[in-house]
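Exercise 3.2. Students should predict the tertiary structure of the chain below and write it as C-alpha cells, then compare their answer with the key that follows.

Predict this chain's 3D structure.
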Amino acid sequence: MNELIIQHFISNPEKYISGEQLSQTLQCSRTAVWKHIQELKKLGYRFESSPRKGYKLILKPELLRAAELISECYSSTLGRHIHLYDKLESTQIEAHRLVANGSGHGVLVIAEKQTSGRGRMGRPWHSPAGLGIWMSLVITPQISLTFAPQITLLTAVALCRTIRKAVQVDVGIKWPNDLLIGNKKISGILVESSGEDERIRYMVIGVGISCNLQVEDYPPELREKVTSLYIESGKIVDRTKLIAAFLHQFEELYNLYLEEGFAPIRTLWESLTVSLHQPITITNSQGRMEGTMIGIDDMGALIVRRADGSEVHVYSGETNI
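Answer key:
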C-alpha cells in the first residue's frame, strides 16, 4: 500500500492529492490513508499537508548506495570496504562481528535504520530510516590502550570540521563525545576498543549524525534536547557526500596523529569546543563537581579549575554547561 501511495504522488508531481482521492483510488478508508502517510514519514518521505487540499510529496528520500559511497570516497584506506544495510540492530555490533570474521582497518558499516542504536553508557540512540547517518568505522592504531580516549576526541574534531565545512552551521564539541548546535545535540560518538597486552587490537568508532530529521521525527521527550542539520540549515543534506568528506577529514587527522602525536589534535579540539573557559558541572562516580573548563591534557582528560583555584583532571563523566 505504501508503494502504491508513493507511485500515485510521483505520477502527480507538485500536486496536492486529497485523502478522499487516495481512499477512493486505493479502495481504503481515509484513516488508513493517514496511517500509511505517517508510516512513509518515518521512512524519510516528506509531505506538505493542507486541510482543504490534502497532501503533496515534497521530498523522496535518497537511499545510500554502496557503489556511490565507494566512488565518492577519496580517503586512501578508510571506507574502501563498505557494508551497507537497510536495517541493523546496531552498526557497532555488526562491526565487531565483521572483525571477528576477519575484517580489518578501514571497514565501514552503515545502516539506513538501527533498531537498537546506542550511545555512551548504553543509552538508546534515535536512528530512524533514511534520515541520518548511522555508521561504525574499524581502525587498527598501533597505540596503547591508555591512549584510546584520544581517538574519541580526534573523531569529534574530524566530524565537527566536516560538518562546519559541508553544511555551514555553527557546530561545536561538548566533552567528551557530543556535537552541539546551540545547546542541542546534533551528533554523538561511541568508541569501543579491543586490546591485548595493553595494546589496542582494533577500535570501532560509532558515529550518529542527525541529518534530515524534522521536529516531528523525534519522540516528544527528545525535542528540547536534540536537533538536525536540516532543522538548523534549512537544507537537505547529501548523506553520501557528508560520509565521504568525514572519512577524508578523519584520515587526514588520523595520519597527523600517528606522525606527531596528540598535541595538534588537542589544539584543534580546544578551538572547537563549546565549553572552553565556561562554567561546567561534571557528574561521575566520584560525585558532582563544579568549576571552569580550561582545556584538555595530553591524555585527553578534561582540566577543570575549581573555585579554590585548584585544578582537577577528569577522565570520565557527564558534563553540563
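Discussion points: The chain has a mean pLDDT of 92. The first strand starts at residue 46 and ends at 50.
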